[in-house]
From TrEMBL:
Keyword Metal-binding found: yes
The protein's required cofactors: Zn(2+)
EC numbers on record: 4.2.1.1
UniProt keyword annotation of Metal-binding present: yes
Keywords for the protein's UniProt record, in alphabetical order: Metal-binding, Zinc
Organism domain of life: Bacteria
Protein known as: carbonic anhydrase
Catalytic activity of the protein: hydrogencarbonate + H(+) = CO2 + H2O
């Protein structure tokens, strides 16, 4: 049985048994928080538990490394929607130790793309169009500096309400310990 079929089979039972009822909430975050964090699998349950969060408490946006690549990209748009439409009053940027983005090799990703059928001509066309794929895929050397960078991108964005605190933290994906990097309540 394929993974998709397993998921759909489980889902049928989940709905029939009304297991969803324990998760019913609104689209507005009860704690008025939006979190940008990494897509790392270790954080899926660890981060909410380490922060005492339950379903409905916060909006969570995920990206590889909790990195904001572009001030007008999808991550920033999601943060603005959370603040201006969904009543989030605080932003948390939460990276984690032992992040895969600290070891990303852009050449390795490009090689894997080619091995899966992406034509070299397509990659070259993107380069000729001005896309620096090596820079776009590049990770970071220091998670705390990366978190500071993302905090500053949000805090200093011309469309961000300057009364909204933007915090930066790093979580240990094994223990759940949070280290404060930037307290957004200071120097607002």
């Amino acid at each position: 049985m394929s993974m998709l079929n397993q998921i759909l089979e489980y889902n049928t039972e989940f709905v029939e048994n009304k297991e969803y009822e324990q998760f019913i909430t609104t689209k507005f975050p009860d704690k008025k928080i939006v979190i940008l964090t990494c897509m790392d699998t270790r954080l899926f349950e660890m981060l909410p538990k380490a922060m005492n969060l339950k379903n409905g408490d916060v909006k969570i946006v995920k990206s590889a490394g909790a990195v904001i690549n572009h001030p007008f990209g999808g991550i920033m748009r999601s943060l603005f929607v959370a603040v201006y439409e969904l009543n989030a009053d605080e932003v948390y940027i939460i990276g984690h130790y032992d992040c895969g983005m600290s070891a990303i090799d852009p050449q390795s990703i490009l090689s894997k793309m080619k091995a899966r059928g992406i034509d070299e001509k397509t990659i070259e066309m993107m380069r000729y169009s001005g896309v620096d794929l090596e820079e776009w895929f590049r990770g970071f050397d220091d998670v705390t500096e990366s978190v500071r960078h993302s905090v500053n991108m949000v805090r200093n964005h011309p469309l961000m309400d300057n009364t909204v605190p933007v915090h930066g933290l790093v979580i240990d994906p094994t223990t759940g310990k949070l280290d404060l990097i930037v307290n957004g309540n200071e120097n607002r």
